[in-house]
Design a protein that fits this description.
With 70 residues, the protein is mainly β. It is built from 1 helix and 5 strands.
């Protein structure tokens, strides 16, 4: 499974419970989940996701690495 964890100004990407990427310059203001606009994966004519997803979850807190392995 794939998980992205945002905590403050950092973003970490996990694949099957193991961290595979990190960014210390993530701007959380770009991803305000308190609005009522639809959630999108990609945007525009060329940057879009063409596929399907199952078991999508959004949390209002950063999950710990231990929680990601469950």
């Amino acid at each position: 499974h794939l998980a992205a964890v945002r905590s403050g100004g950092s973003l970490k990407l996990y694949l099957d419970g193991k961290q595979v990427a990190a960014s210390g310059s993530f701007n959380p203001g770009d991803y305000d989940l308190s609005n009522d606009r639809p959630l999108r994966i990609g945007f525009g004519d060329h940057d879009y996701f063409n596929g399907s997803l199952s078991d999508v979850r959004l949390y209002n807190r950063a999950l710990t690495p231990e929680e990601l392995t469950k």
